[in-house]
Design goal:
The chain is of the alpha/beta class. The chain folds into two domains: 1-136 and 233-286, 3-Layer(aba) Sandwich (D-Maltodextrin-Binding Protein, domain 2); 139-229, Periplasmic binding protein-like II (D-Maltodextrin-Binding Protein, domain 2). Helix content is 26%, strand content 17%. It has eight helices and 13 strands. The chain has helices at residues 76-88, 99-107, 122-125, 167-174, 184-193, 203-209, 244-259, 262-269, and strands at residues 53-58, 91-96, 113-115, 118-119, 129-130, 136-137, 139-143, 158-161, 178-181, 198-202, 216-219, 233-236, 238-239. The protein has a five-stranded mixed β-sheet, sandwiched between helices. A three-stranded parallel β-sheet has the order 2-1-3, with helices on both faces. A three-stranded antiparallel β-sheet has the order 4-12-6, with no helix packed on it. β8, α4 and β9 form a beta-alpha-beta unit. It starts with 52 loop residues before the first strand and ends in a 17-residue tail after the last helix.
């Protein structure tokens, strides 16, 4: 998958009306974001596509990222990003897309970074910079029957989201019985309608989406055929490969947000366990 954690004072919080989200794909410029205070002093110096603005690719994966709310985004990643933007005196412009479009958008210079529980993986690290870990996430299995093993998915109609970390491995195991969707929202609609029997999703996202209903969400048991099932992934902000100053600035501030408890508070406010903040040493998964 995708799947997976204060410094200098800011005199005035980001204010103003919420940005109008003008695009439905991550392929261009959005509307104006909230305005940074004129007397704000940034903690670091780094370049962005548009001076004074973070252009952010976002897709719908609640509770991590949603294309609604202030600046055209909300969720865990959005809340963490706003904390960083405050300290860097930056406004935010959101561009809505899907999992398959956002990394190319960052690579091609249309967005400074992407949000939405992006995992720190070896292939991804070769095409974009990956920030320090934000939080942990796991591969989850959603079903009425309470399935948790990949072997239990064989012979069933299974859905997952295009671009998620486990897609290629599951395609090898499940073949044509695996259906790909452009977003978790689309997948869950088919799951609810009975067009598929099982969904494979971010565990945290699935917990949030199916809270209070009979559908069961379980962490996938380790399976040697599906690498993502074997180790909890660390979530990150993918950003431009050639912007080392931005990476350094983000990493330093993320470390502070872990240390002062800000990320823990954000996770809990979005219905996720505080334990997800304990990311450990940065690592990459295959």
């Amino acid at each position: 998958m995708s799947r997976s954690r204060v410094g200098s004072a800011v005199s005035t919080a980001l204010i103003g009306a919420a940005a109008v989200l003008l695009l439905t794909t991550a392929c261009g410029g959005g509307g104006g974001g909230t305005q940074a205070a004129g007397n704000c002093t940034p903690k670091h110096q780094f370049s962005t596509i548009e001076k004074g603005t973070l252009t952010v690719g976002v897709y719908d994966l609640p509770p991590y990222a949603m294309t609604t709310g202030p600046d055209g985004m909300s969720g865990v990643d959005a809340d963490v990003l706003r904390e960083i933007a405050k300290r860097e005196c930056l406004t935010i412009t959101a561009q809505a897309g899907n999992t398959a479009s956002l990394i190319p958008s960052v690579q091609q210079g249309r967005a400074d970074l992407a949000i939405g529980d992006w995992y720190r993986t070896v292939p991804r690290s070769k095409v974009v910079n990956l920030s320090a870990p934000l939080y942990l996430d796991q591969m989850g299995i959603v079903s009425d029957a309470g399935l948790s093993r990949v072997t239990e998915l064989q012979g069933k109609k299974v859905g997952t989201v295009d671009g998620y970390l486990w897609v290629k491995d599951l395609q090898q195991v499940l073949g044509d019985s695996l259906r790909l969707y452009p977003s978790a929202v689309d997948m869950n609609q088919d799951l609810k309608a009975g067009r598929i029997e099982v969904g494979v999703d971010s565990y945290g996202s699935a917990l949030f989406t199916h809270k209070g209903v009979a559908t069961k969400v379980l962490v996938a048991q380790p399976d040697d055929r599906v690498a993502a099932s074997k180790e909890a992934a660390q979530a990150t902000f993918p950003m431009a490969k050639d912007n080392q100053d931005m990476l350094k600035a983000f990493d330093e501030t993320i470390a502070e947000l872990h240390k002062d408890g800000t990320i823990t508070k954000i996770l809990e406010a979005n219905g996720l366990p505080a334990s997800a903040e304990q990311t450990g040493t940065p690592r990459l998964i295959p």
